[in-house]
Amino acid sequence: MVHVDRKHSLLIWGYLLFLTVLEVGIVYIPGIDPTLLILGLVAMACVKAGLVCFYYMHLKWETDSLKWTIIIPMLTPAVYAVALVLEATYRLVA
Fold this sequence. Notes:
By secondary structure, this protein is mainly alpha-helical. It has one domain (6-93). Helices cover 80% and strands 0% of the residues. The N and C termini lie far apart (55 Å).
């Protein structure tokens, strides 16, 4: 059984709150490039998902093989999303 102290959990919760506020706030920045906006939102979502997986699902304390079993499928949609955004940007510019 892994013991996680309350202070550490609240710190991770604070990081998640900060990233959520940042995600909401970045949408209202006038004149931001849509490609940068989407890439930034995808990056922040990946960081948030990683924090939840590693700390609230206790993946940080598991074996390396189990970590990679979770990390690789988790990164696949993010890589795919970035590829789609870049491809759509290329089509708009061309």
